[in-house]
Amino acid sequence: QEGDPDPLLFQGQIEYDAVTMSLNRGDEYAAETYLEQAFNWAEKARQAIEQQIEDKAYCIQCLPDLQRELARLTDGLDVVKAKEEELQRAHHSDAWQTIAHHTARVPEILDACRPLLDQAQDESSRERQHYFKAEVILVHVEQQLAQADQLCTAVDEQLAELNEAREACRAEQGALDQLAAQARTLVQRNKRLVSRDTIELLETSEQLWAQTRENQSLETPHWMWISQQMGHCRDAFQDCIDQANEELAAHERVKELIQELEKKEDDVSDLLRRHHEDRPRANQRFLSGHSQLVALQDRLRKPRTDWVQLEAELKSVGDLFDQAAQW
Asked: Residue 218 gets which letter from DSSP?
């Protein structure tokens, strides 16, 4: 019988008896050897007794706890099943595939644990007192019930996460509609000024938003995917607005810069007329700047010009006029 100290004590008694016989024969060396072995068996018996006490205490405490936990999980099976049905009814199956088999697995675990608890109770009874064996069983059952609880919790958390994503998407829809309208109005009102890239970005953003709205109307939407797509839509519309505003700001800077250059051109032209010295390099730079300015002014009237590039070229014209003025 596992954990029983009696066989260990019996073996120790045999060694002790051998000590007495050895002393009677006057063999002190043998007596010392048998005595050491007797003490070893006694120590093993002591350890077995202590282990029995610990195992018994564990069984007394753990067995009823696990029985209550088994009952709690069993009572909660209907709740877990209801949550799975809500997942099936309200959410796309791809959104909860990781927990799809949890509700089927939990009853299997609970059914396997019931006879094990009965066995542990029998092994730890007063009649059998197999506390170590009972403890091994209880440790296994504890692990299995913990796994069942984790599976139930995963179902609950998955449903809560998807419901939260659904409510967040519905709450954000109005704000995203407003952002889309803002981008659309800005681009349409300035269609001749914004670039082709900005117009195409708006078109792509609206196509993505339409697709996302269409997925929202499905019988079982994938709200996690929709949430990600709404984030992409939000970023795309905001990028469109930022890009259009940058281009419009560049257009305003270009208009101001052209006015400045026209004045600078007049000033340099007047300066050159008032001086009769030979100035071929200055004249060359002035004429080059003049011809470039005329060409750039023509580009200002064309739709969807790259205003940032035009601004850089106009600054180069300004440099030519400055150099011409210094000759």
From this structure: S
Secondary structure (3-state) at 26: coil
The set of residues, in sequence order, having a beta carbon less than 8 Å from that of 47 and lying 6+ positions away, is: none
Which residues fall within 8 angstroms of residue 324, CB to CB, at 6 or more apart?
268, 272, 282, 283, 285, 286, 289
Q: Which of 327, 303, 307 is nearest to 315 (CA)?
A: 307
pLDDT at 48: 67
Residue 226 near residue 212 (C-beta atoms within 8 A): yes
With cut-offs at 50, 70 and 90, classify the pLDDT of residue 205: very high
Length, in residues, of the chain:
327
Count of other CB atoms within 10 angstroms of residue 30: 15
Query: Distance of CA 170 to CAs 26, 133, 163, 177, 223, Å?
Result: 98, 56, 11, 11, 10
Query: What spatial distance separates the first Cα and last Cα of the chain, rounded to whole Å?
Result: 114
278 pLDDT exceeds 70? Answer: no
pTM, full prediction = 0.68
DSSP per position, 73-122 = HHHTHHHHHHHHHHHHHHS-GGGGGGGTTHHHHHHHHHHHHHHHHHHHHH
CA–CA gap between residue 4 and residue 92 (Å, rounded):
59
The SS3 assignment for 253 reads helix
Dist. CA 153–CA 64, nearest whole Å: 23
Instruction: Tell me: pLDDT of 297 over 70.
Output: yes
Amino acid at 102: H
Cβ proximity of 300 and 255 under 8 Å? yes
Considering the chain, what is the average pLDDT of its residues? 87
